[in-house]
Amino acid sequence: MMHKFARSLASLKITIFSLCCTIILILLGTFEQVFTGIFQAQELYFRSFFVHWHPEALSWPVPCFLGGYSLGIILFVNLLAAFIFRFKFTKKGMGLCLIHIGLLLLILGEIATGLFAEESQMMVHENQVTNYSENFHLLELALIDQSSEEYDEVSVIPYQQLYSGKTIEFPRLGWKVTIKALVKNAKLSLKEGVGQRFANRGIGPNIAVSPQAPFKKDEQTNVSVAYVEVHNEAGSLGTWLLSNAIEEEQTFEYQGKLCSLTLRPRRSYFPFSLELLDFVHLRHPGTDIPEEFSSQVQLYDANGESERQVLISMNRPLRYDGKVLYQASFGDQDTLSVLQVVDNPSLYLPYIASTCVAVGLLIQFISSFQQYKRRRNK
Amino acid sequence: MKLLLCCLLFFSFDHAPDFLKIKSLPVQHEGRVKPLDTLARNSLLLLRGKQSLTWEEKQLSPIECLLDIMILSDKADQYPLFRVDHPDILALIHQNPDEAQFFALADLRVYFEVLRGQASKVLGVPAGDRDAYQEAVLSLWTKIDYYLRLQNTLFIEGEGFQEKDLVAIDQLQKAKELSPQQLEIKKWLLARYEYMDSAAVFSILPPLDPESQEWSTIGHSLKSALEGGELHPAILSYGRFVNAYRQHDTLAISYFIDDLHTKTPVHLVQKEVLFNQVEPFYLSIILYILAFLCTIISWVKWELPCRRLCLILLVSALSLHSFGLVMRMWIEGRPPVTNLYSSAVFVGWGAVFLSLFLEKIYKNGFGFLSASALGSITLVVAHHLAGEGDTMEMMRAVLNSNFWLSTHVVTITIGYSTTLLAGFIALSFILKESVTSVVDSRSQRSVASMVYAVICFSTLFSFVGTVLGGIWADQSWGRFWGWDPKENGALILVLWNVLILHARWGKMIRIPGLMMLAVGGNIVTSFSWFGVNMLGVGLHSYGFMNGAFTTLALFMFSQVLFILLAATPRFRRRFS
Prior knowledge:
Chain A is built from five helices and 18 strands.
């Protein structure tokens, strides 16, 4: 009984069905990208088990189509079952075997990338040293204790984990932080005294906040707002308005300890640091079409010792400490270099998979050709 | 180089041999050194939409038009260069809104202020949100602006080249101290040259410094001469050539052109001049169409002689086609596929090449038919994709040639090519089977095996091409797969081909099903190749193009009709 069920998993009909579904999913996902941008569509369609529809009548989402992960798993199981029950591991079948093993690895690779890979951006200004990168899709609430002269102690809470009424305790510092209100996306404008109702410290009282619908396009980042109150048993120290759109440092002092509060893109700190020595932007003569971008950087290791100078340019990334840094963009009239930092443990899977498939295809092609020649010679 | 010159002379059909020499003058435009001929052809294409102009019963070549625009502005102002078809604009210029026409600059001069005002308003609207009228008025003003700038590239419009300027510069350079009067003259001259430099469309003077890649405009060079630099040796020759042209002094024109050939690096552009003269793709289209007619006739009567003629025509067409591709590669120094235009040319080449092989093996005429049809159609499509001007434009930094990019682009294009080939054979098969009454199951199985074999090829190439693209993406920005619309399109194509193969192996489809799915492949390919560019998302977005969208939609609809034709019981009954 189990054997029969397992055998049926290897059915070609399942393969055809899943291939059809995958084609439809990719098509729908691509059209979705026109409206909500690549990142959103990817999360909704490809990096999910089901594609959900959010009708206004119901409070929970309705799954209406298989998502990328589900189809990946179905194809994976189907292929594995086919391997066990149907493939012949003879010399003739070797080519086909390798091709499909390679495909299995490719599917695995993409699932692993979806789950484990992390991408962020490192903004390095000329003649400045940076040791962190930022993820502009995710925000964090950061409380920085600057009381010590030698170091800053940074405590971060991801924005996703915040909710109205949440209290975060800092027993060592002696106070608590409570979230009074959160706004996912808002328009901020400077107006004297308007924000007094909600914030009474820092820049908050002078900012008018008008909530708006969250942005859907990739290029637009939501302006998120959090009202936080700092208090302890003695009472409240005040309520601040924090936002990723506010660049000013907002600080408070209590019993000689200086602290700053901020809402900022999620940072990943590295054991190494980079100093941008020179950013070069070559254009084709007489035009604005870029010919080459490159950043000459000085790499410092974990102890702050200078390690070496590296040239990072288009198509020539820096590979260091398990991460890869690519020349992504630039700004500030060619004095700011933006590097894309990719941390993907399953980095090599697609290469192994492709080699597998390539070898398999070659074997298959050669054996087909030999078969064809034999038939012609008869 | 001598061989090139001989070829050039052989192909020079121009009445005045001097035009060939004028065409060979090198200029730098949009970062690339090209012959004046290319600039002339692209300018006319940009302004008129065609590479030719008929004026007073005479056919004017692009170079003649360009020279008239730049030098004989009074004459060129009468040429009907600007096409206006939007009814609102026609109304704006007090013309009949129902009649689209070509207008001369002289006709439009009165409306400059109005048009300029309208165009600058459009610039305030973001590119994706403009409606048809706004696009049309901006396009018209851009063309007028381009024309006016051409008129000011060699000298300030209407004046001709002023040799006394050079005398003045020489005097100012020699004077140790400048009198207030001389300072005034210097200021005035600087302003003139500044204007010329900013208006110039292209740079005509090669760099004096052998290390530099930057060519200069006449304005720029005169300006630097005024500020103490060296006077470029070619300026005087260009000036005298221009003045000779204004006076129609053929002897002087000849003399100064030869002089210019010694002062400018003509050898840099000779390959491209040859390429332009031969017009290989245009000739190929004609030969492909003739071959198509031959094949159709061969199925009705005179089979053997028609097939022989067809083979000769196709081999010649393919040779010209290949010559064109190789020349482009040689001139650009890049692999054969660099932009949408060259991808279309290469798709055609691949399809013809494979078709001829298929014909050799199967000998049923389908190979010839697909070679001739796909060859001509792709080249015509390519011609329409060249509308923006230079098809050998400089590449952006991220597209700088590297191994993975070159192999990816070439392989995936072959993938498109072979899928379209399978689709075309399938649809001609459907058509043929629908009109003939005789059922020949041997020939049916033969064509089916043809289609199957080609789809095997497509699967291989489209898959490998997609993977190579992933590797390139990983090397360039760290993401093997980004779910970009172009990547998705390619993936759908691979999956479609894989679907066909697996359905055939599982015996889920027979010959009619195979043909239907193969024609479906045409729809998938056109979506993947062109459709995704119009979505306005991602790296390959070229924005929504109205005309192209209609053509694409009609094409996809036509393919659906073929699929439905093969689904009818009457059709399916022909297969046991």
